[in-house]
Prior knowledge:
The protein contains 4 helices and 2 strands; from the N terminus they run H-H-E-E-H-H. By secondary structure, the chain is mainly alpha-helical. The protein has a two-stranded antiparallel ribbon. The radius of gyration is 24 Å and the shape is flat. It starts with a helix and ends in a 5-residue tail after the last helix. Residues 3-67, 120-147 form a coiled coil.
Amino acid sequence: MKLSEALILRADCQKRIEQLRQRLLRSARVQEGEQPPENPSTLLAELETSLRELTDLIQRINKTNSQTNLREGVTISDALAQRDTLLLKRSVYDSLVNAAALNQNRYSQSEIKYFSTVNITELQAQVDRLSRECRELDTTIQAANWNTELID
């Protein structure tokens, strides 16, 4: 199985677990004399099976990511950490640009006038550069996911 397939299965498993949670909550309590919509014991057994499957997938994905090199000295795990921090940095810079670029409507000269304390043009260029780096890195990671066999 390819790493990308395992990632899809992991997402499906997580969705199934969340659905089981909701079904269990609906069946957790009933009025006296009523029956739950589903048997909680059956749902709990299904939950345990899904959780074991998820644990196995996560362990195998993590093992594969930490042992697969994208390029010399850089594993998939390293690239994922780099991508996450690039996305965070991009988000912060984008928020700063939006906060600094807010237009104000002044109706009289007695109202307070605000000025940007940062160079919006430079920051926007930085946001664009970070966005491009994230896209390129994500493409490299996805290509590796489709070409890498999942480790047992």
